[in-house]
Amino acid sequence: MFARIVAFLKGLHENHLTRSLMRYFDWPLFFIVVGISLFGVVSIFSAGSIEVTQKPATIMEMLQTQPLTYPRLQLIWIAVGIVAMFVLMFFDYEQYGKHANALYVLNLVMLVLVLGVERGRGGMTAFFTWGSDRGFQPSELGKVIIIIAFAEAFASRTKPIMTLRDALPLVLYMALPLVLIIAQPDVGTALVYVAVFCILVFVSGTNYKLIWGVILCGVLMLIPVWFFMNNSSADNFRVDRILMWLNPEAYPDEARQVINGQTAFGSGGWFGKGLVSPGSFASLGYISDDHTDFIFSIVGESFGLVGACALILAYGLLFARLIYQGLRAEDPFGSYILMGVLSMFIFHVVENICMVIGLLPVTGIPLPFMSYGGSNMLTSMAAIGLAENVIMRSRQKARHDRTRTPRKI
Prior knowledge:
- By secondary structure, the chain is mainly alpha-helical.
- The protein has helices at residues 2-14, 27-47, 59-65, 69-90, 93-98, 100-114, 138-155, 164-182, 187-203, 208-230, 236-246, 256-267, 281-284, 295-328, 332-356, 374-404, and strands spanning 128-130, 134-136.
- Helix content is 68%, strand content 1%.
- β1 (128-130) and β2 (134-136) form a beta hairpin.
- The radius of gyration is 23 Å and the shape is globular.
């Protein structure tokens, strides 16, 4: 045991971040992330504004008369998140792969321990809490761990998944943390784990007939699942969310968040009402969680359709950058890591935006780099750090291979 610890520490020492490695840092990816994050701070400021009779004449007047608690805290979380990003970059990602199973077990332990805490909002046992309003959500950190674990599991295979027997060990590997997250219950985060797993299954070259067969079985299973949920008092909350999504007008009280969120988004028109606007939904407090899960409603109200489309374009650039670098990765493990990070962000963005505008049910999934909150910001920045880790070392390996290959005369 002692020898393994010594070998682990030696590996970290020999494969840490150096100044020469920083020349391969993907600055465009970093600036996209910082740009979205700062736009998120402005949107959070708008979401937390108080009612005014007239628009402040200057930015200084706006800052002096409006609450700054959430924007200030979000800036701190961004700074801490950037530190977390560099921590994930510091050691060679191959070291994470060598200890993927240990990280996987650590994730399981945290998910088991959190089940013993006192139930909080929504009857969930998802947070380790301290103080009056501070908490840490281990399933958020678990997203980064599960990306590493899944990437190593797929990269270690010598051939694609062709049969159910091939798929079963990977499904069980995914199911253990999934069951613990559902037990909290946190269906939104559980869906993120499933999305990461499914996209990695797809890009790994799995037999398409098997994929379509599993999808068909999943669709058929929705019938008994819906019947069970509809007849179980414990699951009425989730059934109501689906019914509110299908017909929000039939649930004017329960669906007030959804209805007001969509109304606020549409009220912004093309260019929005601007920050701290008289009579805005944000200042009147009509949208619960408008600074967290429903921040996209505030983007629409404050910056209009143009601002919302600009944000979506920024996310598109982020996705494109990750895809581009994923195709250039020097080894399967690194490529799977980048695809896992990409799939996590895609699911978060698509689910959050679609639930705000009414295309999907509300699941409580935050919008990456935009929604207020420390756990998600740390997770998102750590995921970017993991991606940068792969990008930098893949670029370095590619350059090293080119310099060692003799030129043909």
